[in-house]
Design goal:
By secondary structure, the chain is mainly α. Helix content is 69%, strand content 0%. The chain has one domain (4-195).
């Protein structure tokens, strides 16, 4: 099986899982509906992105056992909605506002930079140094981090951040380091590296 299959299954199921939690716990608060809208739409957009401008790393083959492992590890991201909905906690308005803002900016960075990378490399292979990549070498990871921070905030509990920490340390950082090593083969990479941040934009 391809690695994208368990990932897409998890992402695509998220809206249904959150809705099921709302029904089971009879929690139809504003916070729960906002979470459903944000995380559910993100999951659907992820699946759509995989069809329109897919990431090559998710096309690699994996065993069924590893695919099942990936699916359940991604389940860490369902901790936040469980905490929010099962405890019937209503986030303050400012938290909901900040969560939505983080998601909107994160969506643009994540999906916009992935689209730029896919279509640029399709027609002009090489080092990408403009657009979303002009100030940071990993705008997609920055966007994804912002999206999941927005989700975790709504949980109103520190345990809701476990998924973010686990994937940031276990996947994001190693992938960013691996990407830098791969890009170092380009002659202009060192000058590009001096002008950009690994994750956060470098302005000066």
């Amino acid at each position: 099986m391809k690695l994208k299959h368990p990932i897409n299954l998890h992402k695509g199921m998220t809206g249904l899982v959150v809705a099921a939690m709302m029904v089971y716990f009879q929690n139809f608060s504003v916070g729960a509906w906002v979470y459903l809208a944000l995380h559910g739409s993100y999951g659907l957009m992820w699946v759509l992105k995989g069809e329109v401008f897919p990431d090559r790393q998710w096309k690699q083959r994996s065993s069924l056992a590893y695919g099942v492992f990936v699916f359940f590890i991604l389940g860490l991201y369902w901790i936040a909605p469980f905490l929010l909905i099962s405890r019937t906690t209503e986030p303050p308005h400012f938290v909901i506002t900040l969560s939505i803002a983080l998601n909107l900016v994160g969506f643009v960075l994540h999906f916009g930079s992935d689209a730029q990378k896919y279509f640029t490399l399709k027609y002009r292979p090489g080092l990408i140094t403009d657009g979303f990549f002009a100030r940071t070498r990993n705008p997609n990871y920055l966007g994804e981090l912002m999206i999941y921070l927005g989700f975790a905030m709504l949980s109103m509990h520190w345990v809701g951040y476990i998924g973010i920490v686990a994937f940031f340390v276990g996947a994001f950082i190693p992938n960013m380091i691996k990407k830098d090593k791969s890009l170092s083969r380009f002659a202009e990479f060192q000058s590009y590296k001096m002008k950009t941040g690994l994750l956060f934009p470098k302005w000066f």
